[in-house]
From TrEMBL:
SUPFAM superfamilies: UDP-Glycosyltransferase/glycogen phosphorylase
Name of the featured protein: Glycosyl transferase family 1
Record organism: Novimethylophilus kurashikiensis
Keywords: Transferase
Domain Glycosyl transferase family: 301-423
InterPro entries noted in UniProt: Glyco_trans_1 (IPR001296)
Source taxon at top rank: Bacteria
GO molecular function, one term: glycosyltransferase activity
UniProt key word RNA-binding: no
Matches recorded under Gene3D superfamilies: Glycogen Phosphorylase B (3.40.50.2000)
Length: 450
């Protein structure tokens, strides 16, 4: 088959979307298919193919709600005229999907879409977007979901659509077959006797690094030494993405004015969204609820991730935090050297890191974010720490409760061992990319249809 995959970011950019698309694309190439990726231009990408996958870059940013900017027409023409057997787009609310809307009817190839969670479903500024979305989704031949129960699949079911499959995420059997390196702890100054906690996620402020650090600060380790590795990469910024956009200084007077109005409109939309959320809290909880939210936000600003890292590293003898951005091979060794993976992200769909934890035989403790509860059920490899969701669907864990659950698992090493073994066995049987790629191949070829 000749395949076109579209995603906002791709290798060498790091993240869940990038990893899933890379794994599927490279395995399709190994199976004899021709794969092209349409994605954003990056300053640190100086090649047009990787592991047999052709990469075509577009200088585009944004989405339909924030505004699309750059080579939109070039991308739409490329999409409409690409001679493919199947086209697969991953994730809503980003340009490779949103810019495709006007040309979907012109595409003759089989069209597959992975919604990827609908993170903005409860955001007021995205109300019109999701009002228009059902008609767009019906133009695709097949939809792929990662979870049996989540906001995106519920949205589709509520609109009477049934042309979908559930294909779980996983972890790479080639990467995690690496032998455990017993010198990992020594390399990073971690005592062999230290109870090693690991959390992994991009440094966006939404991946739970602060919450886990605070939980460790509150942890009564009963004299045992505890080390926490906070691993995370910086997301691409606008300076990393090559987009040839007109700036106000280069525009005519009218164009300059339009750009300023557009940016003003975006700011106004954000303010309106915050006002709507505050009003909903007021309706449900009164002024007390509003002031509690404000107090919480002020408290979070005072006690940042840096605060907790400094608090532990400079004032506590038997605890240590390492903030790292490890190369991939070394990160896999971090999984294998750790005692417990802790995940407190605020927003997810189907977190790859939980599958990677099971692949390493590492038990996990996660908040109920995305389909983490399903992953715990499917793999038997982890536990769930209860946490509430706010009015926008963001998971907010109590660090004190998370701390107590970490201690409970520390006190029961046999339970940790069993969780690790169960998770690893489930990963080997079902949740590896070798197995998962076969499902994608069937869907892309049309073996699995409406």
């Amino acid at each position: 088959m000749k395949l076109l995959f579209c995603c906002e970011f791709y290798y060498p950019s790091v993240g869940g979307v990038q990893e899933v698309m890379r794994q599927i694309a490279e395995r399709m190439v190994k199976n004899g298919h021709e794969v092209t990726i349409a994605t954003s231009q990056l300053n640190n990408r100086n090649f047009d193919s990787h592991n047999g996958v052709r990469i075509v870059e577009f200088a585009v940013t944004g989405n339909l709600t924030r505004g699309l900017e750059g080579e939109i027409e070039r991308y739409q023409s490329f999409l409409a005229n690409f001679n493919a057997d199947a086209i697969m787009i991953k994730a809503a609310q980003q340009w490779t999907f949103d810019a495709s809307w006007p040309v979907l009817d012109l595409i003759k190839a089989r069209k597959v879409f992975i919604p990827c969670g609908f993170s903005g479903l409860y955001e007021p500024e995205y109300a019109q977007y999701f009002c228009n979305l059902p008609n767009i989704l019906r133009k695709f031949d097949h939809l792929i979901f990662y979870a049996e129960r989540y906001r995106d699949i519920d949205f589709v079911k509520n609109h009477g659509m049934q042309h979908f499959s559930i294909v779980p995420n996983g972890a790479c059997e080639e990467e995690f077959s690496a032998i455990k390196d017993s010198s990992f702890r020594e390399r990073h100054g971690i005592p062999e006797s230290s109870f090693l906690l690991l959390t992994v996620g991009s440094m966006t402020g939404m991946k739970g690094h602060r919450e886990v650090a605070e939980a460790v600060a509150r942890l009564n380790s009963k004299g045992r030494h505890v080390t926490l590795i906070l691993n995370g990469n910086r997301l691409p910024s606008i300076s990393d993405i090559r987009v040839n956009l007109a700036t106000p200084s280069k525009c005519s007077g009218i164009e300059n004015l339009l750009i300023r109005f557009r940016h003003l409109g975006k700011r106004t939309s954000k303010l309106a969204g915050k006002a709507c959320r505050a009003f909903r809290v007021y309706q449900k909880e009164g002024w007390k609820g509003v002031w509690q939210r404000i107090a919480t936000l002020l408290g979070q600003k005072k006690k940042t991730l840096d605060y907790w890292i400094n608090d532990i590293n400079h004032q506590v003898r038997n605890k240590k935090i390492l903030q790292l951005d490890l190369p991939r091979t070394e990160l896999i060794q971090a999984y294998k050297a750790s005692d417990l993976f802790v995940f407190a992200s605020n927003i997810e769909y189907s977190p790859l890191v939980l599958f990677e934890s099971t692949a390493a035989g590492l038990p996990f403790l996660s908040v109920p974010v995305g389909n983490a509860e399903e992953i715990a059920e499917w793999t038997g490899g982890g536990c769930i720490c209860p946490a509430l969701k706010d009015e926008r669907g963001y998971t907010r864990v109590d660090p004190e409760l998370l701390s107590k659950m970490i201690l409970e698992l520390m006190d029961h090493p046999e339970d940790l061992r069993k969780l690790g073994e169960n998770g690893h066995a489930a990963w080997r049987e079902r949740f590896n990319w070798l197995t998962i790629a076969k499902d994608y191949e069937e869907i892309l070829s049309g073996v699995v249809s409406r």
